Amino acid sequence: MDPQLDPMKDDLPLMANTSYMLVKHYVLDLDVDFKSKVIEGSIVLFFETGSQHRKNSSTGRECCQSEFDQSHKMRASEPCHVPVTNVSACSSKMEYNGFAVSGEGEEDTSDENGNHSNSEQASGISSSEDCCDRENHGNQDFVLVLDCCDLSVLKVEEVDVAAVSGIEQFTRPAKLTDVSKELGNLRNHIVHELVALPAKRWEEQLCCFTHCSQAPGCGELPFATGPWSLEIRKPGIGTPADFPHAIRIWYKTNPGGRSVAWTTDQSGRPCVYTMGSPINNRALFPCQEPPIALSTWQASVRAAAGFVVLMSGENSAEPVQLPEDILSWYYYVSMPMPASTFTIAVGCWQEVKQQSFTAAIPTNTEFSLPSVQADFSWHEAMCGHVGYPCRFQNPAVSWQAVIPHRVFSPCCLVELCEERLLPLIPQCLSAAFSTLGTHPFSRLDVLIVPSNFSSLGMASPHIIFLSQSVLPGGSHLCGTRLCHEIGHAWFGLAIGARDWTEEWISEGFATFLEDVFWARAQQLSLEEVKGQQELKALLRWRRLRDEVQNSEEELQVLRPNKESTGELSESGASVVKYGLKAEKIFMQVHYLKGYFLLRSLARTAGEASFLLSLRKFVRKFHGQLVLSQDFLCMLLEDIPKQKNPCWRRSRRGRSVSSSGKCAARSQNGFRQTRGSEKAAKRKENRMK
């Protein structure tokens, strides 16, 4: 194993070989069992060939294969000796083409950590680096590597998408010459045509994904699990292009898995939810975790009647009644997102119904903010992201200041949410819209999560988790936290960091914008805005000072990977530096240093100009992954008259890339935002 991927270190390994195969869509079909504290079912993954294989193929190279210990070969003809339960409930039409599914009385081959394999010994699979970074000499198989942890994988099979009725529309252009590979090529061609459908046909595409996910299996695939990965191969297949592009994985979660928390809510009722684990969602479903693996998903989740399933999805799901007092909930997303942003919460939540009140929509103009009219002129510009039904290109929603929203909570907190939280949401959404323009997501659910939630809030596509701690007292804490999480819709979700170590791109922007949004939502005067923001800057400076003095210096750097930020191995595997370090979970240095950097830039450029630049940045980079220099370089281009020497030199003829390096060096070595801190210190001394 590459020493950089040592699971005993503080770095979080991202094992998926995304350079060779890239997940484009997930279809989850799951049952939630509160008695056993297990989520069980299947996931179908649809792939396209990755960029590294396409590059190597163009030069005649064959790449990305695995060395299997010949003394421990995996036999695809053997059954997977693991009992698969409730398979008929997940899909009654599945066929296994001669592969026996073991029944009652057969021994579960999982080890004490819940790891499974249908090989004689899982140790026969080499690491992802060994699997994928060597030349293919014609006698080795390609290995697909997925991120996976704390899961019991029961079975992996190829999906026969060619058996789907009506799929012929995707087969006509196929050029099939090799008889021995004809069916495999046909299936891969169908998946390729399906994932390549244009954005305007997204509904048809979603329907086809559904039908293909229900197709029968056409051959079990050997697999093995390790501490951080699931490795799959197909005997005789040596390249990603020939590897099955649609596979189904049967699995179940571990009751102690680190991606979800099984607990009780404030009313004492059982619930389970994704709580923002450092390992993200790899203990919820096998996936590709690197940010570059942007994908869409759809999920059918079944739970006992009385439970409500909330999820990151574009639709407000309505339950379907099934036999045996079971409800089924269905969600989907059409905007490609990292798998880490997938969120689910299942509990006896109660919706907080909106009463007959009219929320005050901010109308104050003294606090200078960009006009929404400034956003409209950019609608004609082409988006830079991959194709999907983008709200920024939809004039019908360009003036939608308040998107549809719902609030859920345990029954004992409904009255408090109705009083404190529900009236704030329209105000905060409207304030965010007046600042940054079009909402990236079409709707929003807000859930008050159980008391074991370790943060004040967490934002995911279409859903926000809030701690019960924001509800007591006045509206300030609830409003500022709500504004912070709403800000993540733009920075952190619609625009993501290409390298997860640059978390300031998400948290620094959200911290800066929460002040702007909240001041707007309160309809404060310019003087009141200044006083409030100066006080918050002072408090944040004190917090940052204490954290800098009492934490390891290596955890205080905004870009710990320095010049290597955003770089990947040839296979696509990488690490999140210090991603597993326990104390990092409680640190706010990236929030605060990012905030002070942006505050300094806003003061230098002028707040109105700076906010217009943020709006332009959102227009240009939504739906994409960015690095720090993408923002800094655009800022240098966008604000021509500045007092900063770096900007003045760039205006005298230095290239944009040179001035960008100047700004990037300033940010890369950022230890303390000295200007803002000194100003805050002077204010503190005056107060004394």
From TrEMBL:
<dbReference type="InterPro" id="IPR042097">
    <property type="entry name" value="Aminopeptidase_N-like_N_sf"/>
</dbReference>
<keyword id="KW-0378">Hydrolase</keyword>
<keyword id="KW-0031">Aminopeptidase</keyword>
<feature type="compositionally biased region" description="Polar residues">
    <location>
        <begin position="115"/>
        <end position="129"/>
    </location>
</feature>
<dbReference type="GO" id="GO:0005730">
    <property type="term" value="C:nucleolus"/>
</dbReference>
<dbReference type="InterPro" id="IPR033577">
    <property type="entry name" value="AOPep"/>
</dbReference>
<feature type="domain" description="Peptidase M1 membrane alanine aminopeptidase">
    <location>
        <begin position="439"/>
        <end position="637"/>
    </location>
</feature>
<protein>
    <submittedName>
        <fullName>Aminopeptidase O isoform X4</fullName>
    </submittedName>
</protein>
<dbReference type="Pfam" id="PF01433">
    <property type="entry name" value="Peptidase_M1"/>
</dbReference>
<dbReference type="InterPro" id="IPR014782">
    <property type="entry name" value="Peptidase_M1_dom"/>
</dbReference>
<feature type="region of interest" description="Disordered">
    <location>
        <begin position="101"/>
        <end position="130"/>
    </location>
</feature>
<dbReference type="InterPro" id="IPR027268">
    <property type="entry name" value="Peptidase_M4/M1_CTD_sf"/>
</dbReference>
<dbReference type="GO" id="GO:0070006">
    <property type="term" value="F:metalloaminopeptidase activity"/>
</dbReference>
<dbReference type="GO" id="GO:0008270">
    <property type="term" value="F:zinc ion binding"/>
</dbReference>
<keyword id="KW-0645">Protease</keyword>
<feature type="region of interest" description="Disordered">
    <location>
        <begin position="647"/>
        <end position="688"/>
    </location>
</feature>
